[in-house]
Amino acid sequence: MTLTKAVGLPTEADLVARAEAMIPLLRERAEQAERDCRLPAETIADFRAAGFFKILQPRRYGGYEMDPQSFYAVQMKVGEGCMSSAWVLGVLAVHNWQLALFDAQAQDDVWGEDPATLISSSYMPKGRVTPEDGGYRLSGRWSFSSGVDHCEWAFLGGMITDPTTGTPDFVTFLVPRRDFTILPVWKTMGLGATGSHDVVVEGAFVPAYRVHRSKDGFAVSSPGLKVNDSPLFRLPFGQVFVRAVSSSSIGALQGALDLFRNAGATRVSNNDASCAAQDPATLELVAETAAAIDEMKALLNRNFDHLMSAARAGRQADVETRLTFRYQSAQISSRCADLVTRIFHASGAEGIFRDRPISRIFCDIHAGRTHVANNPSKVGRNFGGVLLGAPNADSFI
Questions:
Q1: Last residue of a domain, one of 97, 115, 133
Q2: For residues 397 and 271, is the Cβ–Cβ distance under 8 A?
């Protein structure tokens, strides 16, 4: 965790306090944002003004280079007000971290004139790739590009052939806004305000320096480390990204718990006049949820404390440790979904109305659970296999 304050930079406590101050406004904006299928420009502007996109950005472009724990504390606090807002913040801010791994010229292409420029993504390797002199010709259609309406660049996944081994190599292409079209397809039951639309590219040329190899992210050998040598950028890519799409659920669950506590303290049944605050099942649910949230936050901090300590010492966590942390992140959404479902049921008929915050949080957490990085089954099978002697089959750790 970031403990010291560099001159002119905010502390983690400063940033979390800014996020907490936004909660009422984020809740107020949530219903309209869901109808619009995108976050309002005002929310992105608020995040910029608060410095949230700078937390994981290199200092050479005005960023703070703070530890991941500090960023996720902010993201979870934002999630208490609106999970869609926290989801977009998490994904876009982590892209600022990933861009630091690209060649220095790619970083300057994006941030040279405006360090506040944002990047969206869709990492699924759906691109049709043709090698050309100096780079690649890229075409395809990618889905689930969260926050793309607010971005001038995109990270898009694809496969190339490794020139050394001849094997397929998963890569991320960095593509400017002029080379892609946004298809407004995002009409969903949850996370509606993330604006995770489709992106189409037709024959764009991507120079080789704007390509990041997954194996470099795994091995911590990315070209950007030549200019960004902070331990922050020596973390495995998979460890950082997966938390961007799981931690917002923790914040949203806290928001649901807060709303439930405020209502439950005085709610009396219209049928039998019983008080919710005296119902044993309700009391147990509130206690269990509060304890689970504390546990999930503590585990996140412990894991990144371990990873950052290793990075500062010039080491990397071993594969088994990385798989453990990966699996623990994948479990988050399922745990939050189970608990918010019980809160939703305990809220009674009042919770089913579409304009009630509890119904939105219920849908948002369940929508977040569908992200491939939040599926514990596949991750768990690989992890279990490694524990029983099989080779690791997941490079996204």
A1: 115
A2: no
- Cβ atoms of 59 and 100 within 8 Å: the answer is no
**3-class secondary-structure state, position 345:** helix
Per-residue pLDDT of the chain (397 residues; tens, 9 = 90+): 443 345 579 999 999 999 999 999 999 999 999 999 999 999 999 999 999 999 999 999 999 999 999 999 999 999 999 999 999 999 999 999 999 999 999 999 999 999 999 999 999 998 999 999 999 999 999 999 999 999 999 999 999 987 777 788 899 999 999 999 999 999 999 999 999 999 999 999 999 999 999 999 988 999 999 999 999 999 999 999 999 999 999 999 999 999 999 886 666 555 555 666 678 888 999 999 999 999 999 999 999 999 999 999 999 999 999 999 999 999 999 999 999 999 999 988 778 887 789 999 999 999 999 999 999 999 999 999 999 999 999 888 8
CATH number assigned to the domain comprising residue 55:
1.10.540.10
Total domains, the chain: 3
Token pair for residue 112? 């040279």
**Residue 31: which domain range?**
12-115
Q: Has residue 180 been placed in a domain? A: yes
CB 158 within 8 A of CB 173: yes
Q: What is the pTM of this model?
A: 0.94
Tell me the C-alpha to C-alpha distance, in Å, between residue 267 and each of 277, 343, 348: 8, 14, 10
Question: Is residue 19 located within the same domain as residue 158?
Answer: no
Are 137 and 275 found together in one domain? no
Separation of alpha carbons 351 and 341, rounded Å: 11
CATH of the domain at 373: 1.20.140.10
